[in-house]
């Protein structure tokens, strides 16, 4: 296999992966839009996105990883299809379909810092409000 052929193959692979990531993001947008009307269709969009992700070996952004259950591949909407609790420096997300529990470190203990959009919320913290004043 010549070097130019490898470069061509690599660029084609990168192009396919970027296109697949765009499609995965679009599938999650569709799942968000349709969840209120048809939760089963939203779950189907998540399964299709998971299939694309595994086929092209993609790493999902954190905001997308926090929106579905990896066990049953159901779309999560806090309060409807998942339960979200904050206890002792952890965020605990429970899937209401299969019961899987996801525990994430949170707070000032040097753990993982989660953006507010990862949980589907737009929250202004007290620090943000002080900066605006």
Class by helix and strand content?
alpha+beta
Give the count of structural domains: 2
Rg for CA atoms: 18 Å
Largest sheet strand order: 1-2-3
Total of DSSP H or I helical runs spanning 4+ residues: 4
Spans where pLDDT lies below 50 across 5 or more residues: 121-131
Count of strand segments:
3
N-C termini distance: 63 Å
Form type? globular
Percent helix, as a range, is: 40-55%
Helix-strand sequence: HHHEEEH
The proportion of strand residues reads 5-15%
* Major sheet description: 3 strands, antiparallel
Average pLDDT level: 84
Key phrases:
Single alpha-helices involved in coiled-coils or other helix-helix interfaces; 2 domains; three-stranded antiparallel β-sheet; 3 strands
Written description of the protein model:
This protein is an alpha+beta fold and 133 residues long. It has 2 domains: 60 residues, Up-down Bundle (Single alpha-helices involved in coiled-coils or other helix-helix interfaces), CATH 1.20.5; 68 residues, no CATH class. It has a 3-stranded antiparallel beta sheet with strand order 1-2-3, with no helix packed on it. Strand 1 and strand 2 form a beta hairpin. Helix 1 runs antiparallel to helix 2. It is globular and about 55 Å long. The C terminus is likely disordered.
How are the SSEs placed, and which strands pair?
Layout: H1 3-34, H2 39-55, H3 62-65, E1 82-87, E2 90-95, E3 101-105, H4 126-132
Antiparallel strand pairs: 1-2, 2-3
């Amino acid at each position: 296999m010549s070097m130019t052929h490898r470069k061509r193959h690599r660029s084609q692979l990168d192009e396919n992966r970027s296109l697949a990531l765009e499609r995965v993001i679009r599938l999650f947008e569709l799942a968000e839009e349709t969840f209120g009307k048809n939760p089963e269709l939203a779950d189907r969009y998540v399964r299709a996105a998971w299939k694309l992700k595994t086929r092209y070996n993609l790493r999902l952004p954190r905001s997308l990883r926090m929106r579905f259950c990896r066990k049953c591949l159901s779309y999560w909407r806090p309060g409807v299809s998942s339960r979200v609790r904050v206890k002792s420096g952890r965020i605990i997300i429970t899937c209401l379909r299969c019961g899987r529990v996801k525990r994430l470190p949170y707070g000032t203990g040097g753990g993982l810092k989660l953006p507010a959009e990862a949980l589907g919320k737009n929250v202004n913290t007290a620090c943000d409000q002080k900066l605006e004043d």
